[in-house]
Amino acid sequence: MVDQNQISIENRGELSILDITGDITSASEPFFAQAYKHPDVDGVGKILLKFDEGAYINSGGIAVLIQLLAETKRKAQKVGITGLSDHFKKIFHMVGITRFADIYASMDEALKAMG
Amino acid sequence: MVREADDRSIEIILPTKIGYERIAMDCSASFARYWGTVDERIEDLKTAVAEACLNAMEHGNKGRPEARVVVTLDLENGAIVVQVKDEGNGIPEIPADPDIQRKIQKLEPARGLGLFLIRNLMDQVELNRITEQGHTVRMTIRLQNPEPMS
Fold first, then answer.
1. What DSSP state is assigned to residue B74?
2. Under an 8 A CB cutoff, do A87 and B104 touch?
């Protein structure tokens, strides 16, 4: 079963929080693309991606995230990520995602740093 | 090759259907847990098995739903050995490690991370084992002290 994603968007000034439910796979691409086009996300200076800690993330999903980071880099938007399990923190570090996004242990920590 | 059934081996046969790699992941995790593998290594195994199955479905079997992916798990010499077999001809060119900077700059495709993850998460990986039945990826994860759950 491949879950579809639901991405809810909350704005706090210059920070846009994308609360992402569901597994992150190549099937997530249209959901991320649609969320990123949202006017509350497109023009902000900072974006926080909040994942489900129990979510399945595969290489196709990481590729979708890299595509998003390519856009945020182009627009000089700062990106934070929270809600990752220890395993996926390790994977994101291994792949190099952490060179382009800061990973936070909790929502509180992310909001303190980015809010 | 005819495999002899024993109590240290299991075999999972999957159709080529994206999403079914989750079944192999869950079986692998259960097998590893049974043999006392620590949680961190179970997570490594799950990701490697998922990526090997996805590669087998997408590249080996080229998405043909009738083609099968056969996953075997064996406890051998204190290690879990996973073999993922597809009906393809192997990996013609082993890709270089991904360059995240180039991917961000869109100078190389964002995809193509599966083999990199497998090679970095497993203790030993053998690619391109070709037989008449197809192509097999063999992955090994060493256990510190394999003991079956009581």
1. E
2. no
